[in-house]
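Action item from last meeting closed. Structure (408 res):
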């Protein structure tokens, strides 16, 4: 195909795609902003982290725990505002049930961490020192207890660190902090939701621009690179999976498939980060003039399944019931075996986090939970369809934060 024909085909695809994602709600005007740094973005100031630390203390008290220890990672960043990174040198946040928290870190890191963190009390250890001894002494001072108690250890902490902390604090009992940290993070504050909305708007804008660039002969890798560039141009790092034709039948892709041909399925699953918060959206389109009847039927079936879950969702709905609602629609149409994954997952600082919309999870949805709803049908050797939107649970039901695709 000549260049002029390629350009015409690309324009037709994006025009059709934009029609498909049209919803009853008007487009978010932020989705057209090319330079988000010039726009006012929500700020996570010191008061946000003070509230988080207070909530963490309340959870410690309710669970009869004396102290939380967290090493660098998402939970550490959630509580301090900064992730200094994890290495062979110990960095640890120590949060007592009462009183100010402290950070134990290499002495040469004190100034760096102090400049970026909401924690003001830092204790440095020199290279020749055993940092776990400093942790022991700090624990004793923060808790006013010399030899016993219960410590909630952040669950991603390295196993070797756990062993060494255990040797340094032999009278203390260690328990998994996951129930505590998951409870803190699963309910999103207005500031967090605002950052997620911004990430979603940028993602949708970047996806639209990427779909507009589709052309016969391009590879999945080339389109994925274009997608990342579009996100970076909008001020947010990100990227995602790009799958053509039969490759779209693999939920998480695989080795790069064939180059793009006309009259083929294109699936893009992607997200970006704004202020530490991540979007996650999937769109599946037909690249060509006329979608096949089979693609149209599968797409509309997946859309109906997504709608069923969205309409069911209310505060108090068990997570597993959301999965069941979508799966019932797909199973009734005879495609149950082709819906091979859970319906969705929580969304926030991590792309996948609790709560998970999956059979067996009886946790009830609550206002301010954010999660994806992403049913899919995957027919190996043919094609797959997934439609994924980011959603907020409100007092009255599911609010779709992204712009839904429309039925074909």
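Sequence:
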């Amino acid at each position: 195909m000549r260049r002029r024909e390629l350009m015409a085909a690309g324009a037709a695809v994006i025009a059709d795609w934009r029609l498909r994602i049209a919803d009853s709600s008007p487009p978010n005007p932020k989705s057209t902003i090319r330079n988000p740094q010039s726009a006012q973005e929500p700020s996570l100031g010191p008061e946000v982290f003070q509230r988080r630390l207070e909530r963490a203390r309340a959870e410690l008290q309710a669970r009869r725990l004396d102290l939380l220890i967290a090493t660098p990672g998402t939970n550490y960043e959630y509580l301090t505002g900064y992730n200094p990174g994890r290495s062979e040198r110990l960095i640890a946040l120590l949060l007592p049930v009462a009183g100010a928290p402290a950070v134990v870190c290499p002495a040469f890191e004190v100034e760096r961490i102090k400049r970026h963190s909401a924690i003001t009390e830092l204790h440095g250890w020199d290279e020749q020192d055993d940092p776990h001894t400093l942790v022991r002494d700090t624990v004793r001072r923060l808790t006013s207890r010399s030899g016993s108690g219960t410590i909630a250890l952040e669950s991603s902490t390295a196993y070797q660190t756990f062993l060494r902390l255990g040797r340094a604090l032999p009278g203390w009992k260690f328990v998994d902090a996951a129930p505590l940290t998951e409870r803190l993070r699963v309910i999103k504050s207005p500031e967090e939701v605002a950052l997620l909305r911004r990430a979603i708007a940028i993602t949708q804008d970047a996806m639209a621009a990427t779909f507009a660039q589709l052309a016969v002969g391009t590879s999945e890798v080339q389109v994925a690179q274009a997608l990342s560039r579009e996100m970076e141009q909008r001020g947010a790092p990100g990227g995602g999976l790009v799958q053509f034709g039969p490759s779209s039948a693999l939920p998480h892709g695989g080795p790069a498939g064939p180059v793009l041909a006309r009259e083929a399925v294109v699936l893009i699953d992607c997200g970006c980060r704004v202020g530490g918060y991540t979007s996650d959206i999937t769109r599946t389109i037909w690249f060509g003039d006329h979608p096949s009847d089979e693609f149209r039927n599968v797409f509309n079936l997946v859309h109906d399944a997504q709608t069923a879950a969205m309409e069911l969702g209310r505060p108090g709905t068990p997570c597993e019931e959301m999965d069941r609602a979508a799966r019932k629609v797909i199973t009734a149409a005879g495609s149950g075996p082709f819906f091979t994954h859970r319906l969705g997952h929580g969304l926030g600082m991590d792309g996948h986090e609790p709560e998970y919309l999956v059979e067996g999870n009886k946790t009830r949805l609550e206002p301010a939970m954010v999660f994806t709803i992403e049913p899919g049908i995957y027919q190996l050797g043919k094609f797959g369809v997934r439609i994924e939107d980011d959603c907020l649970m409100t007092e009255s039901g599911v609010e779709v934060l992204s712009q839904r695709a429309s039925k074909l």
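Note appended to the action item: The first strand starts at residue 67 and ends at 70.
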